[in-house]
Q: What sequence folds into this?
C-alpha cells in the first residue's frame, strides 16, 4: 500500500491561533454538503414542469422511494452494523396507518403522514427496547428477530379489521394537488422525503450521534467503556430509521391505491434495502442512495424490456459480485481511488505543548480518590474477586500485582463497569459507581486500556482518540474532539499516524493508541491493564516514561503489570491480589520481599531460595 | 371460535406431524451448515425447490418420482460442495454468506421461473392417489414417505455425527478450527463433504415437496421463516433437534388453524421464534 510514501498532512502549529483559523473552514465544508442536498432537491422539484410523460414521474418516484427506504435502513443497520431484516414491518406499519386513517376515518392524505411516521417510530422503539436489552445479541439473531416481527405484524393485520384479509382500497381518497398531476404529486412528496432522509442521514454521520454509532459498529464494548451510551444510541437510531420508513410507507399507501399484506410484509423490502446499501456502501450516508438508484434502474430496465425474470437474476448476480469483490461497497471504493489521486486528508493542527489541567492535581493530593469496599465478582460460582478492599489515592501510581487469575483484570473490568459486581461498593469522588453502566463511569472520570488493544478498526487513529474525548470527555462537537485528540496523539508520540488506520500500526503503537484514547477523556483515574505486555525492553522504557508523564499532568494511575522492573520504577504503592483476595499492600520494595508474596508468585521452593539469597 | 371435534383435532395433529417432518427435513441441512460450517445458506430453500421442479420434470417424463432421488441426491451433493468451495475460496463471513446465498436464491428463482413459468405446478404421481385410513384418520402416502425419510435421515445423520470419526472431526472443527487442524483434521475435505450432504438433504426435501405440495417459484420464500424458527428452536448443528422442533411447530400451527383460522398460523411459529431468540439468544451462537 501507499502508507509509507503518503505525504504527511499533519503540521506542528502553535496551539492558539491556528486552531481558530481552521474552525470556520471545517464548518463551511460541512454545510456545503447540506446545501448541496437541498439545492439538488430544489432543482429536481422543477422536473414536473417539463411535462414528461407520467411514467417518468412514476419511475422517478420509485427511485426516490427506495432512496428513502435504503437510507433510513442504513441509519441503524449500516452505521451500527445491526442488520435489521424488519424494515418491511416498519414500512408496513406506516403504510397501514396511513391507509386506515384515510379509508376508515376519512383523514386527508397529508395529515396521515406524520401519524404514519409516528406509529412506525413507536413500533420501532418498542421492538428495540426489548431486543437491545438482550445481552450479547449478535447480528444474525437481530436479523432473524426483526424478520419474525415482520411476519407477526403481517399476520395480525391480515386477521384483524385493519385489513380484514381483502386489502384496503384507497380509490375514493383524493390525491392532493401539489404537482400538476397526481403522479407528479407523488414524485414531489417522495422528493421531499428523500431530501429529508438524506439530510438526516448526513447530519447524523457528522455529529456526535454518528461517531457513537460507528464506534458501536466496530466494538460495542469498547465504545461503552469510552462513554458511548450504546443502548440509548441504538434506540435513537432505530427510532429515526423507523420514522422515516413509516413516512415512506404512508406516501406509498396512496401511490399503490390498493394495499395488501401479502405485498407489504414480505422479505422483499428488507432484502432489497440491504442489497442497495451493501452495494453502495453502508458506512457512508450517501452509499444506500447510490445503490438505490442503480438497483431501481437495473430492475426497471429489465421490466421495461419484458425481462423481469432476467432482472431478478441480474440483481442476484450484482449482489454476489458486490459481496465477493467489493465487500465495503462502491462508494468507499471510489473514495479510495480519489484519495489516491493525491487529495490529502484534512489537515488538523497539532499543539505540541504538554496538555495540562492547571491547578487541579495539586489540590487534594493524597486523599482517597476511589475506595472499593468488599468488592466481589463471581462467574457461575467461580469467585474471581472475593471481597477486596482497595484504596486509590489522588495523584499516585498504584501497582496492582498478582499471579495470573488472581483477579487483577476482573478488578479493572468491574471498576470500569464492564462487569456488574456481585457485591460490595466502589466510591469514586463521593459517588457510588457499583452497578452503574460503563458509559456513566467513563463520564464520571475513569478511563481504562485493554491488555490486547481494541481500536475501532473502521476509523482513523485520530477518530479513535477523538471518540474518547467526545464521549468520555463530554465535548460537544466532533471537530472540537479531533483537536483535543490531536494533542493526546502528540502526547503519545503518534501524531504522524493520525490519519492511518489502526491495523497499519505495530503492537507498540497500538498500545500507545490505547493510552492516548484513555487520556483523551481527561480522566481523573486511568486504569492501565498490562500496557507493557509484549513490548521490547526499549519500548518498555518509552512506555514507562509516558506513564510517568500521565501522572505528572494530573491523572491518578492504577497499573496492572507483570514487568517487575517497570513496577519498581513507577509505582508509589502496590497491592497484591491472590485468588481474588487482597494478599499484601505497601511500598513496592517492601511488599515484594514478603514471603507470602514470593510464594504466590514463585511457588514454595523458589520463594525460599530467593529469601536465602 | 369453537373447539372442533376430536376427530378433526386428531386429523389436524396428524397433518401437523407430517408438515412438521418436512420442516425438520428442510431444517436439517440448514442447521448442520449453520452450526458446523458457520454458513447460513438461504439458498438451501432454492435448492429444495430446484430439486422439486427437477423431480416434477423427470416424473412427468415417465420416471418414478422416488427414483429421481438417484439423480437428484448426487447432483445436489455436487452443487453444494461447489458452492462451499467458492465461499471458502473468498473466506466469506457468516453474515455475508446470508447475503450471498440470498443473491443465489434470486438467480435460482429466476431460472425456475424462466423454465417452468410462474404458474402453479402439481406432480401427478402414483403415490399421490394412495391414501389409507388408520383408526378413522386419513394418512396420505406422500406425507407418510416424507415423515419416514425425515426420521430416517435425521437418525442417520445423528449416528454419523455421534459415532464415527468423521462426525467427531466435524464437531471438533466447529468448536475450534485451529486446534482441530493442529490435531490433523483435514477440514477442507470434511467441510466439502458436509456442505455437499446439506445440499443433498435439500434435494431429498425437494422431492418430498414435489410429492406433497403445489409448486410455484414464489413459494421459495414462504418456507424460510418457519424453517428458520424450527432450526433455532432446536439449536444449531444438532441432527435430531430440527425434526423435533419442526413437529412441535407443525402441530401447533395445525391446531391453531383448526381452532381459529388458517391465516393465523404464521403467528405461532414466529411468536415462538421471537420468544426463543429473546430468552435463549445463545441458541444461535
A:
Amino acid at each position: 500500500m501507499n502508507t509509507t510514501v503518503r505525504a504527511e498532512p499533519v503540521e506542528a502549529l502553535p496551539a492558539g491561533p491556528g486552531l481558530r483559523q481552521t474552525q470556520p473552514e471545517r464548518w463551511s465544508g460541512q454545510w456545503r454538503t447540506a446545501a448541496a442536498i437541498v439545492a439538488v432537491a430544489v432543482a429536481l422539484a422543477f422536473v414536473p414542469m417539463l411535462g414528461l410523460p407520467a411514467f417518468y414521474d412514476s419511475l422517478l418516484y420509485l427511485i426516490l422511494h427506495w432512496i428513502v427506504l435504503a437510507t433510513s435502513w442504513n441509519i441503524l443497520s449500516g452505521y451500527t452494523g445491526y442488520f435489521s431484516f424488519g424494515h418491511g414491518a416498519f414500512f408496513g406499519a406506516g403504510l397501514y396507518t396511513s391507509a386506515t386513517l384515510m379509508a376508515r376515518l376519512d383523514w386527508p392524505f397529508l395529515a396521515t403522514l406524520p401519524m404514519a411516521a409516528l406509529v412506525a417510530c413507536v413500533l420501532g422503539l418498542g421492538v428495540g427496547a426489548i431486543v437491545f436489552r438482550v445481552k450479547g445479541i449478535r447480528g444474525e439473531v437481530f436479523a432473524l428477530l426483526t424478520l419474525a416481527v415482520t411476519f407477526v405484524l403481517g399476520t395480525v393485520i391480515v386477521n384483524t379489521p385493519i385489513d380484514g384479509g381483502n386489502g384496503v382500497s384507497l380509490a375514493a381518497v383524493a390525491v392532493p394537488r401539489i404537482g400538476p398531476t397526481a403522479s407528479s404529486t407523488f414524485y414531489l412528496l417522495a422528493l421531499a422525503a428523500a431530501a429529508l432522509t438524506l439530510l438526516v442521514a448526513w447530519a447524523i454521520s457528522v455529529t456526535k450521534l454518528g461517531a457513537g454509532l460507528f464506534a458501536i459498529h466496530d466494538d460495542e464494548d469498547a465504545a461503552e467503556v469510552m462513554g458511548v451510551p450504546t443502548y440509548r444510541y441504538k434506540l435513537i437510531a432505530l427510532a429515526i430509521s423507523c420514522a422515516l420508513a413509516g413516512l415512506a410507507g404512508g406516501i406509498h399507501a396512496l401511490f399503490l391505491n390498493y394495499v395488501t399484506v401479502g405485498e407489504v410484509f414480505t422479505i422483499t423490502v428488507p432484502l432489497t434495502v440491504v442489497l442497495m446499501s451493501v452495494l453502495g456502501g453502508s458506512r457512508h450516508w450517501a452509499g444506500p442512495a447510490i445503490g438505490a438508484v442503480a438497483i431501481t434502474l437495473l430492475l426497471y430496465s429489465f421490466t421495461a424490456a419484458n425481462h423481469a425474470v432476467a432482472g431478478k437474476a441480474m440483481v442476484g448476480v450484482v449482489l454476489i459480485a458486490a459481496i465477493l469483490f467489493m465487500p465495503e461497497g462502491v462508494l468507499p471504493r471510489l473514495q479510495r481511488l480519489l484519495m489516491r489521486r493525491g487529495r490529502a486528508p484534512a489537515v488538523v493542527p497539532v499543539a505540541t505543548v504538554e496538555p495540562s489541567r492547571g491547578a487541579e492535581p495539586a489540590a487534594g493530593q493524597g486523599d482517597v480518590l476511589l475506595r472499593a469496599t468488599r468488592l466481589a465478582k463471581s462467574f457461575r460460582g467461580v469467585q474471581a474477586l472475593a471481597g477486596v478492599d482497595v484504596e486509590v489515592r489522588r495523584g499516585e501510581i498504584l501497582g496492582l500485582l498478582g499471579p495470573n487469575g488472581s483477579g487483577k483484570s476482573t478488578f479493572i473490568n468491574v471498576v470500569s463497569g464492564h462487569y456488574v459486581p456481585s457485591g460490595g461498593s466502589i466510591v469514586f469522588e463521593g459517588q457510588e459507581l457499583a452497578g452503574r453502566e460503563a458509559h456513566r463511569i467513563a463520564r464520571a472520570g475513569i478511563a481504562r486500556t485493554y491488555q490486547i488493544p481494541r481500536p475501532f478498526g473502521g476509523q482513523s487513529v485520530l477518530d479513535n482518540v477523538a471518540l474518547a474525548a467526545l464521549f468520555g470527555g463530554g465535548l460537544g462537537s466532533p471537530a472540537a474532539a479531533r483537536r483535543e485528540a490531536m494533542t493526546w496523539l502528540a502526547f503519545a508520540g503518534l501524531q504522524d499516524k493520525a490519519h492511518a488506520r489502526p491495523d497499519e500500526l505495530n503492537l507498540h503503537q497500538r498500545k500507545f493508541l490505547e493510552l492516548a484514547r484513555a487520556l483523551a477523556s481527561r480522566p481523573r483515574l486511568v486504569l492501565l491493564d498490562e500496557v507493557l505486555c509484549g513490548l521490547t525492553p526499549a519500548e518498555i522504557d518509552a512506555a514507562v516514561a509516558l506513564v510517568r508523564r500521565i501522572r505528572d499532568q494530573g491523572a491518578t494511575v492504577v497499573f496492572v503489570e507483570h514487568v517487575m522492573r517497570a513496577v519498581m520504577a513507577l509505582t508509589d504503592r502496590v497491592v497484591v491480589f491472590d485468588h481474588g483476595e487482597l494478599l499484601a499492600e505497601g511500598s513496592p520494595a517492601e511488599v515484594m520481599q514478603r514471603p507470602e508474596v514470593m510464594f504466590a508468585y514463585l511457588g514454595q521452593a523458589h520463594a525460599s531460595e530467593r529469601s536465602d539469597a | 371460535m369453537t373447539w372442533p371435534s376430536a376427530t378433526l383435532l386428531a386429523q389436524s395433529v396428524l397433518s401437523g406431524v407430517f408438515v412438521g417432518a418436512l420442516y425438520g427435513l428442510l431444517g436439517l441441512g440448514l442447521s448442520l451448515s449453520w452450526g458446523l460450517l458457520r454458513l447460513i445458506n438461504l439458498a438451501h430453500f432454492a435448492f429444495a425447490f430446484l430439486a422439486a421442479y427437477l423431480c416434477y420434470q423427470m416424473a412427468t417424463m415417465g420416471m418414478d418420482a422416488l427414483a429421481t432421488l438417484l439423480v437428484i441426491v448426487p447432483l445436489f451433493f455436487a452443487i453444494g460442495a461447489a458452492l462451499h468451495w467458492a465461499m471458502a475460496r473468498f473466506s466469506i463471513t457468516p453474515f455475508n454468506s446470508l447475503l450471498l446465498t440470498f443473491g443465489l436464491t434470486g438467480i435460482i428463482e429466476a431460472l425456475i421461473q424462466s423454465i417452468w413459468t410462474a404458474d402453479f405446478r402439481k406432480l401427478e404421481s402414483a403415490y399421490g392417489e394412495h391414501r389409507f385410513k388408520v383408526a378413522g384418520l386419513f394418512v396420505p402416502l406422500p406425507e407418510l414417505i416424507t415423515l419416514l425419510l425425515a426420521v430416517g435421515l435425521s437418525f442417520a445423520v445423528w449416528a454419523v455425527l455421534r459415532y464415527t470419526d468423521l462426525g467427531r472431526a466435524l464437531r471438533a472443527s466447529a468448536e475450534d478450527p485451529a486446534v482441530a487442524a493442529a490435531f490433523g483434521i483435514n477440514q477442507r475435505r470434511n467441510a466439502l463433504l458436509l456442505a455437499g450432504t446439506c445440499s443433498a438433504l435439500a434435494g431429498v426435501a425437494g422431492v418430498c415437496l414435489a410429492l406433497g405440495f403445489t409448486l410455484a417459484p414464489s413459494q421459495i420464500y414462504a418456507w424460510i421463516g418457519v424453517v428458520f424458527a424450527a432450526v433455532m428452536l432446536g439449536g444449531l448443528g444438532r441432527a435430531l433437534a430440527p425434526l423435533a422442533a419442526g413437529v412441535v411447530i407443525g402441530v401447533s400451527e395445525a391446531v391453531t388453524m383448526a381452532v381459529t383460522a388458517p391465516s393465523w398460523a404464521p403467528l405461532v411459529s414466529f411468536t415462538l421464534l421471537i420468544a426463543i431468540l429473546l430468552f435463549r439468544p445463545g441458541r444461535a451462537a
Remarks:
- Chain B has a mean pLDDT of 85.
